């Protein structure tokens, strides 16, 4: 299978299919084996990073080799003492007279660090503390010399993990590693965020693959095993649980595919913009919309996919009874493998905080608008809506806005004055601590409402999709109630 | 087992939930294309055929490999570098 080049440019030997096609194939690989998908995930995306941010000599040298499967790469952020807190990293970079840099430090938990190429975050000596002082570097694992191949950095350890054994997680030591600066000094985090965003969407896709794998296994089992004279799937309680799981899988798949579609537009136009800075008016409009959607969705799909795959793969162990606990079946392996996604590319809590930050930021930009839309989104206004889906969505949105507004007002304790409509009021930092404890429930609520909105759009276009909309609404209604209760305490 | 063609949901979403109208022009400026596709419909059919073959490969070849990969691991450390295990190498 020529997988690596599926969505890469034909000028390097790729097939040039849209990214959507590549990402759906990635979902299939994740369903088959999430470890393999983690390894494969460091071929094409690394080529994409090289194409987007590196010079043409590196593009010509490495992208064809990546497509042939001869070399791959890694993204190196995490250090033994700093994971979520990337801005505190300690790996150093020192400029040499020939323009290259010498890197020193240690990174840990790096997937596929032995692939041959590496994008590394480090701080140039004298650069500011925090994310503003972080630069991105590109290094090769091997250097050619008259004595043959020499290590440019060494892999000091392969981690023994509880799952994802097929994916190679390494500790790497940089000891005067020769590296090239990518982009400008101190601008590294922005570029790494690009790769991380793609990776976060890919983790959502991995989650979907894991969910599909678990539920297919359980369905097969339940349709063949009899207890009390009936197939498990025909026992009412068993069937009801199963329907809920499949509803969540089908709804999450819809959210994921819609996100892939926007990501395709965003990624393609971002590349064009970086290389030519020349977007037509229509393209600029498409790019703006796709960028907004991707920014909003990235933490949601990462959070939702990772959390749901961990939960449902556990349910599936139970659904197979004692056999689910035995290695003869793959339920246990799939569940062990599901934990990785909760951690890499930013843990669930970090995703939730990002989603909250983005939400509050957009609200802060125009607080008056937010408060006004609460009034205008009252369901009384939706009586004129023609479709059941629109009316139901309008109720869901109104309840969400009403409850989040109550939470915000409680946390931010606005005085009954016009100050509440002022931007500065909402920007006072200490007010945020109080709301942060609700970041995960906010992230869940945002993920459910985003999913419902897309299901509603689909159902408006094709009535046969209404069934999934209402099944999902039934599934998440009690969850919304629980979330709103959390926001009251 | 084919992870694409055996799933009516995937087939539905591929056709109806991806914004092909806006995506295709970002990849192909005009039809017929230099690689011989006459129109958008033919091109989308080709992408579907591709996913049908990756769906078959992942369902029939890669899935059975997962257990062995879990047992053997993806690679081992030799002198400061990683050697990829045979079973993972097959997928590369
Ligand atoms: C299988 C695997 C593969 C990986 N691959 C890579 C890779 O390729 N490249 C790479 O750079 N890294 C990689 N990582 C590392 C991964 O990105 C980090 O483990 C992750 O970012 C968390 O960092 P940490 O382990 O230091 O945990 P910590 O940051 O110490 O977090 C510990 C706990 O505290 C929580 N926490 C942290 N900050 C907050 C906060 N502000 N509010 C609330 N809770 C918080 C976290 O959610 C977590 O539950 C990988 C990890 C794993 C498990």
Order of helices and strands of chain B: HHHEEH
Strand order of the largest sheet of chain B: 1-2
CATH-scheme architecture of the largest domain in chain A = Up-down Bundle
CATH topology of the largest domain in chain A: Butyryl-CoA Dehydrogenase, subunit A, domain 3
**SSE-based structural type of chain A:** alpha+beta
Q: How much strand of chain B? A: 5-15%
Percent of residues in helices of chain A: 55-70%
Question: Of all protein chain pairs, which has the greatest interface, and how many residues does each chain bring to it?
Answer: A-B, 57 and 45 residues
Distinct compounds present: flavin-adenine dinucleotide
Characterization of this structure:
The complex is a heterodimer of chains A (489) and B (92). Chain A is an alpha+beta fold and 489 residues long. Chain A has 16 helices and eleven strands. Chain A has helices at residues 19-32, 34-40, 44-53, 56-67, 188-222, 236-276, 281-319, 322-325, 331-343, 348-365, 367-376, 388-412, 423-426, 430-436, 439-461, 466-488, and strands spanning 72-76, 92-95, 101-111, 116-124, 134-140, 142-145, 148-151, 154-158, 169-182, 226-227, 230-231. In chain A, the strands form three sheets. A five-stranded mixed β-barrel of chain A has the order 2-3-9-5-4. In chain A, helix 3 (44-53) runs antiparallel to helix 5 and helix 5 (188-222) packs across helix 7 (281-319). Chain A starts with 18 loop residues before the first helix and ends with a helix. By secondary structure, chain B is mostly helical. Chain B has one domain (8-91). Chain B is 61% helix and 9% strand. Chain B has four helices and two strands, in the order αααββα. Chain B has a two-stranded antiparallel ribbon. The radius of gyration of chain B is 19 Å and the shape is elongated. Chain B starts with 7 loop residues before the first helix and ends with a helix. The chains are: A alpha+beta (489), B mainly alpha (92). Chains A and B meet through helix 1, helix 2, strand 8 and helix 6 of A and helix 1, helix 2, helix 3, strand 1 and strand 2 of B. Flavin-adenine dinucleotide is lined by residues 74-78, 83-84, 109-111, 164, 169, 340, 343-344, 346-347, 349-350, 353 of chain A.
């Amino acid at each position: 299978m020529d997988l690596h080049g599926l969505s890469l440019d034909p000028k390097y030997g790729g097939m040039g299919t849209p990214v959507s096609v590549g990402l759906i194939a990635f979902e299939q690989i994740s369903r088959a084996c999430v470890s393999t998908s983690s390894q494969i995930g460091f071929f094409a995306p690394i080529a994409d990073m090289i194409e987007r941010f590196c010079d043409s000599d590196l593009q010509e040298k490495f992208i064809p080799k990546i497509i042939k499967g001869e070399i791959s790469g890694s993204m190196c952020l995490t250090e033994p003492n700093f994971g979520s807190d990337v801005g505190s990293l300690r790996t150093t970079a020192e400029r040499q007279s020939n323009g290259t840099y010498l890197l020193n430090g240690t990174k840990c938990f790096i997937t596929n660090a032995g692939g041959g190429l590496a994008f590394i975050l480090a701080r140039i000596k004298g650069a500011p503390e925090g994310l503003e002082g972080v630069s991105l570097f590109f290094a090769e694992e091997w250097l050619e010399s008259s004595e043959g191949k020499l290590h440019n950095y060494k892999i000091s350890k392969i981690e023994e993990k509880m799952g994802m054994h097929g994916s190679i997680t390494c500790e790497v030591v940089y000891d005067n590693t020769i590296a090239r600066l990518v982009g400008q000094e101190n601008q590294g985090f922005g570029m790494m965020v690009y790769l991380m965003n793609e990776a976060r969407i890919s983790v959502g896709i991995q989650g979907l693959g894991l969910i599909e794998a678990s539920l297919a296994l359980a369905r097969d089992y339940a349709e063949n095993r009899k207890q009390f004279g009936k197939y498990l799937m025909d026992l009412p309680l068993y069937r009801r649980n199963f329907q809920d799981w499949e509803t969540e899988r089908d709804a999450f798949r819809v959210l994921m595919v819609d996100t892939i579609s926007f990501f395709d537009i965003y990624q393609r136009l971002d590349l064009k913009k970086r290389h030519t800075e020349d977007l037509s008016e229509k393209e600029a409009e498409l790019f703006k919309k796709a960028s907004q959607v991707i920014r909003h969705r990235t933490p949601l799909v990462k959070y939702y996919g990772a959390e749901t795959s961990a939960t449902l793969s556990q349910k599936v162990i139970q659904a197979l009874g004692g056999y689910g606990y035995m290695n003869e079946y793959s339920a246990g392996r799939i569940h062990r493998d599901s934990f990785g996604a909760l951690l890499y590319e930013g843990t669930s809590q970090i995703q939730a905080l990002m989603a909250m930050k983005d939400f509050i930021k957009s609200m802060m930009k125009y607080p008056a608008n937010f408060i006004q839309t609460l009034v205008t989104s009252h369901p009384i206004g939706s009586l004129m809506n023609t479709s059941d889906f629109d009316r139901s969505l309008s109720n869901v949105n109104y309840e969400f806005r009403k409850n989040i507004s109550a939470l915000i007002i409680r946390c931010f304790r606005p005085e009954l004055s016009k100050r509440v409509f002022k931007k500065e009021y909402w920007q006072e930092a200490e007010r945020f601590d109080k709301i942060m404890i609700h970041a995960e429930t906010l992230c869940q609520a945002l993920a459910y409402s985003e999913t419902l909105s897309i299901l509603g759009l689909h159902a408006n276009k094709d009535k046969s999709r209404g069934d999934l909309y209402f099944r999902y609404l039934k599934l998440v209604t009690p969850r919304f109630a629980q979330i709103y209760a959390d926001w009251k305490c | 087992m084919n992870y694409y063609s055996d799933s009516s949901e995937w087939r539905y979403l591929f056709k109806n939930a991806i914004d092909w109208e806006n995506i295709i022009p970002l990849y192909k400026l005009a039809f017929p294309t230099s690689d011989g596709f006459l129109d958008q419909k033919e091109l989308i059919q080709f992408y579907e055929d591709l996913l049908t073959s990756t769906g078959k490969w992942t369902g029939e070849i890669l899935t059975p490999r997962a257990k062995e990969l879990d047992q053997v691991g993806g690679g081992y450390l030799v002198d400061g570098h990683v050697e990829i295990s045979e079973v993972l190498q097959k997928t590369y």
